[in-house]
Design goal:
Elements lengths: L1 E16 L5 E11 L3 E3 L3 E6 L2 E22 L5 E24 L2 E18 L7 E22 L2 E17 L7 E17 L9 E15 L13 E14 L1
Antiparallel strand pairs: 1-2, 1-3, 1-12, 4-5, 5-6, 6-7, 7-8, 8-9, 9-10, 10-11, 11-12
């Protein structure tokens, strides 16, 4: 389980009509921290000799609220109003690894995520509208390590970094905007081995750690007045149960 919150640098724009009667656009960037929620993150893995393979899938939801956000009135006036975003995200991982030693392994993984955000502005009569849809694909190269501390207590850590590709579909656009970016993932924590007497279970442990995942792009392209960076950071405490069959 992962008890975490999203922190998002999200570019946004709102169209209106200027005093001259021509379309006008307000460009803004909101740095918003979402509500903290607990998500189940199931992982299934197999191991043969020094080789290992694992897969996972998770669904995340979060709610953001910005105290002020730019929007243009029909007269072209730039108004600051509150903004609420709802995030819905699905993320899948497939990872392969090779153990260099019993305690250290190198890994390479493929990540695929799809995300939708709905926005409502703090103006009377404003309905919730789709703010954007995004897909993120990337490779993550990493290293994992675990070491005994004392008795059944152990320490573990992992770090990963790799290129990502982001496709963003904004309202009113028929084609997605593509941009390059990168993933950065890290986790550290403690584990404790459980005493197992079941003949079908080789071992089990519980873990308590802290995990952080960041995806950042180098600008989302010409969909905005300026090439803004897209950045999402998800971090928080993890509680795990690992069973070896």
């Amino acid at each position: 389980m992962w008890n975490s919150s999203w922190f998002s640098y999200l570019p946004g724009y709102y169209a209106g009509i200027s005093p001259l009667g021509v379309p006008s656009v307000a460009d803004s960037v909101d740095a918003i921290e979402g509500a903290r929620k607990t998500t189940t993150l199931p992982v299934v893995g197999i191991r043969s000799g020094n080789f290992l393979l694992s897969a996972s899938h998770a669904r995340y939801e979060s709610d953001f609220r910005s105290a002020h956000s730019s929007v243009l009135s029909p007269t072209g006036q730039n108004i600051l109003t509150s903004r609420s975003d709802h995030l819905s995200r699905k993320e899948s991982d497939l990872t392969a690894g090779y153990s260099l030693t019993p305690n250290i392994a190198l890994t390479v993984g493929y990540k695929h995520a799809s995300e939708e955000r709905d926005t409502s502005l703090g103006i009377t009569g404003t309905a919730t509208t789709r703010s954007f849809e995004a897909k993120v694909k990337g490779l993550v190269f990493g290293v994992t390590a675990n070491f005994p501390v004392r008795g059944g207590l152990g320490f573990y850590g992992l770090a990963g970094y790799g290129p990502a590709r982001l496709e963003t579909l904004l309202p009113g656009q028929n084609a997605a905007i593509t941009s390059n970016g990168r993933y950065l993932i890290s986790e550290i924590g403690l584990t404790y081995s459980l005493v197992i007497t079941d003949a079908f279970v080789k071992g089990a442990n519980v873990g308590l750690g802290y995990r952080s995942q960041t995806v950042k792009t180098d600008g989302v392209g010409p969909g905005f007045l300026d090439q803004r960076d897209y950045r999402d950071v998800k971090d928080g405490v993890t509680l795990s149960l690992t069973v070896a069959l």
